[in-house]
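Sanity check

After download, print the first record. It should look like this:
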Amino acid sequence: MSEGVLFGIGNPLLDISAEVSTDVLDKYKIKANDAILAEESHLPIYEELAALPNVEYIAGGATQNAIRIAQWMLQIPGATTYMGCVGDDDYGKKMADQATADGVNVQYLKDTSTPTGKCAVVVTGHDRSLVTDLQAANNYKVDHLTKPENFALVEKANFYYIAGFFMTVSPDSIMTIAKHACEKNKTFMMNLSAPFLMQVPPFKACLMNAMPYIDILFGNETEAATFAETEGWETRDVAEIALKISQLPKENSKGRTVVFTQGTEPTIVASEGKVLQFPVTPLKPEQIVDTNAAGDAFVGGYLSQLVLGKSIAECARAGMYAAHLIIQRSGCTFPPKPSYIWA
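Expected C-alpha cells:
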C-alpha cells in the first residue's frame, strides 16, 4: 500500500468532553445526540466543562477522528494525510502532536490571529451532544490546499474523505478535491454529518454541488431522514432513502455507494441497485462509556479496508469493530494496537 493513500480535510477541533446532568442541555437549549455550531448563548459552556473535575481534552473534529482511526487500524505510518486550519497555540500543537504520534501526516494551515477551534462534548448517560466553536478551523482557505507541496499530497492519494461539517468552511476546497478525484478515477467520499447541514440552504447547495462526484456517502438514520425531507421525498425508510441517494446523477461512470449506520439497528449499504444490511453486535448498557465519535470510528474502520480493496462486507465489519471499541472508551481514543482479525 502506498504512502499517503488516504487523504482527509476538515475542521480540526480540540474536544472538551465531560459527563454532565441533562440540566446542562436544558440550560443551553441543546438536544441529546445533536451537533450544532455555537452561538453567543453557548459560549460559556466551554469554561463550564473545563472547570469540571472529570473534563478530558482529546484531538477531535469529525474528519480528523475518522483519519486517525483508519491510520490506527492500518498500523502503517504515513498511510494517511490530514489538512485543516488551527491557531498557532498550545491546543493546535497538542492536536498535531497527538495525530502525528498516531502516524498521520498532519499538514495544518496555522492562523496566527485566531485560536484553535474547540468542541464541547456534552455527555449525558450514553448520549452525546456537540457544540462547536470553529474559530481557526473556519479560516481554512483553498490557497493552502493548492500550494504545490500540499497538492502533491492530494495527487499522491487514491481515496479522499471529507465530513459534511467542512461545507460550512471551504466549499472551494471540497470541489477542488472532488473534481481531481473524478478526473483521475479515484474515490471521493463525504458524510452528511448533521441535520443542520441539510436544513440550511447554502450548506445543502454545497452538498448537492458535490453529490455528482461522491462515490461513497456516509451518514446515520437521522441525517438520512433529514435529507429525504429536504428533497421533498415522502419516504422515511432508511434503506429506501439510501437506494434513492445512490441513484442520484453521477459525474462519472462509477456507481455510488451509500452507507447509513442506525445505532444498534443494522447498518444499511446501498450499492449497484441493491440494499445490503449488516447486523450490529449489541453491547450491554454498562459497557457503553459514551457514543462520541462512534460514527467517525465506523467510517475510519470502513476506510481502512476500502483502501486495501476489501469487499463492502469486510469494510462494514471493520467499521463496526472500530465503532464498537470507541463507544467503550471516552472520546476518540484507542489502545496502542487493534485486536481486529483481518480477513
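If your output differs, re-run the checksum step. Summary of this record's structure: The first strand starts at residue 6 and ends at 9.
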